[in-house]
Amino acid sequence: MPSNALSSVKEQSLQKLSHYGPVTSLKIFKSSLILAGYGPILKVYSVDKASNTTKLIFQKQVFGRNKIHSIAVSDEGKILVCGGRSFAVLKVDEEHCKLQVGSERAINEWIVSCAFLNETTALILNSHNTVYKIDVSQWDTEDQHFSLLEEVHCNEKSILYSGSIRILGNGDVYVAAGTVMNGVIIWNYHTKQILHNLTDHEGSIFGVKIDRNGKYVVSCSDDRSIKLYDLETAQLLATGWGHGSRIWNLDFFLQMDADVKIMSAGEDCTLRFWQYNQQESSLDQLELIENAHLGKHIWSSDIDDETLGLCVSGGADGKIRVHDLQNRGTLLSYSLVEISKQTGLTFQKNEIIKQYCELEVQTLFLTSHGQFFAMKANDSSFVKVTIPETLSKEFNNFGIMHGFKQSNSAIVCTRTGALLKIAFADEQEPSFEWIIESSSPNKVTNFLSYKGETSTYMFTDCPNPQIPFTFHILDHRLKIQKTLTLAQPERTFTSTFMHIDETNNWLFLGSRHATIAIYDLNSNSNANISLQVSAVFRKMCPGDTITSISFIEGNHNEATLLVTVRDGIYMYVKFSRVEDQEEFKFTILQENKLSKGFLEGAMIKDGSLIVYGFKSSHFYIWNETKQVEITNELCGGAHRKWELITYDEEADIDYKFIYINKSSLFFKTFKGRFTDANYGIINEGTHGREIRDIAISPVAYDDGNRLLLTASEDTTVRLSSVDTNGIITTYWCMNNHVSGMQKIAFINEEYAGSTAANEEFIIWKLSKLQASKVPVITEFARLPPSSDIPDLRIMDFTTIESTEGDIIVAAVYSDSSIKLWYLNTNTAQFVPLVEDRYTTCCILNVNFIKVKGQVLLVTGTTDGNVTIWDALECFLSTTDNTVTKLGPMLVKQQLHQSGVKALAIQYNDNDIHIFTGGDDNALVVSKLILSSNEVILEPISFVESAASSTITSISLVSTNKIFVTSVDQIIRLWTFNGEDLECDAATYTTVSDTGCSDAFSGTTNGTSLLFVGGAGLSVWK
Amino acid sequence: MGKSSKDKRDLYYRKAKEQGWRARSAFKLLQLNERFDLFSDIERVVDLCAAPGSWSQVLSRELFQKQDKKNAKIVSVDLQPMVPIEGVTTIQADITHPKTLQEILNVFGGEPADFVCSDGAPDVTGLHDLDEYIQAQLILAALQLTTCILKPGGKFVAKVFRGRDIDLLYAQLSYLFEQVICAKPRSSRGTSLEAFIVCLGYKPRAGWQPKLELNKSTEEFFRGSGIGKAENMQYLELPEDERLIAKFIACGDINDVDSDATYTLDTLDKIQSLNPVQLPTAPPYKRALELKRLGQANSKRV
């Protein structure tokens, strides 16, 4: 049996630049630091309570292989970190900004939890319910001689999933042990006596804690419940139900004098706060933070409600977030009775508040019966707005009101399109002025406005398609400068949103059925003739009503706009036309669909895309760029009058959401305590599930950065950029796939492709915004599935460019199918060329080889074979519309015992080498020999045990140099010297389920960046 | 996913139902046997972590029906209750308990076992290092019973996950067996880390007397066995672990059904969807699901 010498080879030649992965432990330290076990790396963040900012002050990999699963701190500030069998003692020297790190030490068992008994003694609870008492006084000496003083146990060595040690003020020490099969065991460390065996849970115990006063025990298990016990009596006090899956973490609040409160977090990515009310058998769920992390699993959390007023959570997505416990915004509500009392207005029985708008010092309201009142901003009191009855009756049953803060005025539109201006001045009654008197008998269905840089614009819609729209251009004091009529587009057009591009003087009107119309306001200044529509783009995307249009960037003859569709789609659309030509065209640069109910609008704020809308009974505001929820409000759902007002950075609040629920008026204000501190994200992360494939763009930007595409088990595709230091910045998280992903790859600079289960195969188009240089991505083409119920996985794909600039695509399937298409880059259509089949086994890899006038197709399969077909004929027949078979099978060679998991092809001057890695741990180099009459694949080098587990990927780094990943979590660089494979370097990676890689060599400095993906993502140099 | 779509995706699942196996894992043992001839010369067999019992079914058919060994004894042990299988003694017990060992020995009339197998796996959490540790503990628990009951020269087969520390286990097993092979049956999915250690030729450690005792951890059990398990160092330094790579052998005929492939049902006669042979047992979170269905789970948001 060969020994595993290949697990550590010249480790120093590989340097880890960055890592994103599961956050395995968190600890708030003395209300000033947050300690995070980021896999084997300890990260230390300082928390500034005044500015609410956090800063990474140290990070250091403290363990070679093990992840940090628990952290304990001593009174004097020593830190004990444990994980796997390893532990280490450290100290943060804040004064000298130093992290003093002791060496990695180990016991012979998995460690469940740890604590400091005193400054020189550590207690380590192992997975067999035994506490190791260890003298750590020598931790900062040269030898670091630790000695095991005693193994303390309660004579019940059940195997544990969880546990904790509680040291009380009076010196009592309790061990709370969460067993795999026997419930919770509470025992006394000093007496070694079992106090209680709590067996109310079903299944394994995943968390158990004793509060700092030693009065309560809380535990959670596989049964998804939380149980609170009295520590002294072992009486079950209450149970909390609500988590949708397993709970991994529990903690008591620090302040427990008045109420018993508990925080919990788990697999469902929610954080929940619970309160125990005496005499109630259920814990009361006080608050729920949903989508705290992406994908699955909050692995770690801690809470400081006492001083910092926050809790911190760490997910499988690699993110560390702080959540505010204090300032959660205000909610004020007023019933009509209350408003009536304050204003002196009498409301009719069926009278409701219809319209409102926020002005300079008040918010103005209009009722269904034409009454106006205002709420003063300074004291939130309601006052009547006296309006002559002749005016008031115009708004009986109809009135659409828009507010204009700058001029402290509102414009109200009547049913016939007359516009009344209500202008407020300091301490005076408002003035009323008709700026448009109604002249038409036609009803108005919508009144839209837009405030531009130079002018303000107003628009009234009419349901009769023969009657033109009316459009006014006003100055900022709301004086009409010009009025135009706009001929309605053909076919029904219900306007829903208006935007003006003042650079080009274009009017954009959003409508239903994802339709946008453009009027060129330059083209006609004759008031007597209606302006004709310049372009109508119908069904620009799936979905219905356009809910918002706003500006992203523009230029002469082009405007890129952010468009939202109620069904959940947001797009960046570039509208353009050629100088002196009338025809407009549009290109969708970015399109994504949110699975968040109704999307009502979007904006760019501090470089983040913020979207908002309704999901079931909630209104939400979501930061799409950062992938975090900003706030939500239980308002009853989408069917109500509502208004979202956004404030700039200097304001006291970020957002105000005004809505009506059950005829009462609600004002929800929100100020994110950590909005300016990266929304409380103190460490950026990656996908929420395992990464299945990684692709690096073939060409670098000028600054050396490259684009990075990752595909995950969470079905999303993330588009990021990576700099030369390995720091990853994510721009987009695309939801187009709905099935578990298989492969992602760049086709060239402009296109990429991705495949997944259920026959999903998407071709993506990549571009870049001009001003901000933000990369954008959109689905360019999608392969139609071959059956109504597609259940095949598309395992891999490969492409080759045709002479016409189109793309020939080959894909391989889980049912052994091989298909080729001609992808026309103008029409985005897949034209089938070849449908063939290998055997019945699953095909894992496919590649084209184009050399010396030949085109070959190479596959690797689960039966261990590498097979090569002649595919040249398929290319010659691209013009006729027949679907053919592949050319003759030239080679079928078994190289591995089972699945060929990885396959990479290298072209040298005269040789083609195929590197393969298998489920059988082997690495093989084969030489492809092409002669005029035959093709031979000759294995020339073979390493039987190139890893201790499945080899999952091979990436070419440079000539004859390959980067190999395997499930044993060792990454290896191999060089092929023409005869043998030699392992140049091998080192451990903390990325488990190690499944994919990519690599590139820098063109200038010659360093290579290596990417490893799995349960996390690491970048090595 | 309905029953039929799982049938389509997984031909072994369908075949298991057709052939009356309680789980598709029956094929894994059958394919291991095809390659390693595990079932010849065995009479006394222990199947650990046996529920729902497909491996016991395989052993029962093999020894009693095929080989007609009237004296064969098969004992299946699991913490979960198991529906009885003809000719198999089922024991609902903890495999780490000394009483369990005694019960098995009683069935065997005090004679040692010829073959011990375990297809056990814990529920996974998603923390790979923890899951691999728990699986390793399960194998060590099976192995400690094995060292107490297996005859010299006997065989041991167990499910493993080929994760980061699998080479530690290979190293330890190599002290106890003449041959240690990592075998991957074709019926085990290529996308899964699952494989089986096939350990042939048990060689008891000289001078070490394995003894199951109550409240002794697996570490304590193997203390002094000299199988290369790291013990506590004098000053708790990080020990150098012994690591070995076991030979990998894929087994099952290359033309057998591929567990990673998707098959078309049309090719398989138009068969009705079959009910599983054995229904799954109730999960611990059954009540949580019931409460959710009734809308009684606390879901208040503020």
Query: Quick one: which chains have the greatest interface?
Result: A-B, 114 and 72 residues
Strand % of chain A is over 45%
Rg value of chain A: 33 Å
CATH class annotation of chain B? Alpha Beta
- Straight-line N-to-C gap of chain A: 33 Å
The structure class of chain B reads alpha/beta
* SS element count, helices of chain B: 9
For the record, what CATH class of the domain at 686-1020 in chain A applies? Mainly Beta
CATH architecture of the domain at 686-1020 in chain A: 7 Propeller
Order of helices and strands of chain B: HHHEHEEHEHEHEEHEH
CATH topology type of the domain at 686-1020 in chain A: Methylamine Dehydrogenase, Chain H
Q: What is the 3D shape of chain A?
A: flat
What are the salient characteristics of this protein?
heterodimer, A: 1021 residues, mainly beta, Methylamine Dehydrogenase, Chain H, five-stranded antiparallel β-sheet, four-stranded antiparallel β-sheet, 3 helices, 2% helix, B: 302 residues, alpha/beta, Rossmann fold, eight-stranded mixed β-sheet, 19% strand, globular
